[in-house]
Here is the input.
Amino acid sequence: MATQENLRAAFAGESQANRKYAAFSEKADEEGFKNVGRLYRAASMAEAIHARRELVVMGGLKTTAENLQGSIEGETDEFTEMYPRFVEEAEKEGNDEAVITFTHAMKAEQVHAGLYTRALEAVQGGKDLDLTDVFLCPVCGNIVLNAVPERCPICGVPGVRFGSVE
Here is the structure.
């Protein structure tokens, strides 16, 4: 069982490094260090390769229906249990920025769970999700389908800032 625990730990570490290096890449680019940004992007992609391989080896990549069910459960836990607790703790500490960050994530996770539920229903019916476009809010991570709102219903960012996801 030590190998399974090691795979889970490695997956978590590689996943975090992937996201951290992606953020470092953007920061380097913003500061004018384009080649450092490229190096971090490559490292981020390498960490993603490691994480995916570890996920496969530990049996974490299943059918789309099973993956959706697990995603619904994970997102639901985040918006019903984890983030409400994090918001409460941040409020007690007076950390307003953390309260906003956690609240935005909590609300976006609820949207994600709903979208995964729709996707699961489609997959269980033998169909793909019926949609034309997918858009992502760059501030809170809200996902909207087919049309961009005038303003994000979670964080209020103007809809023109939403990015299209291919």
Remarks:
- The beta strands are 134-136, 143-145, 163-164.
- The mean pLDDT is 97.
- The longest helix spans residues 64-93.
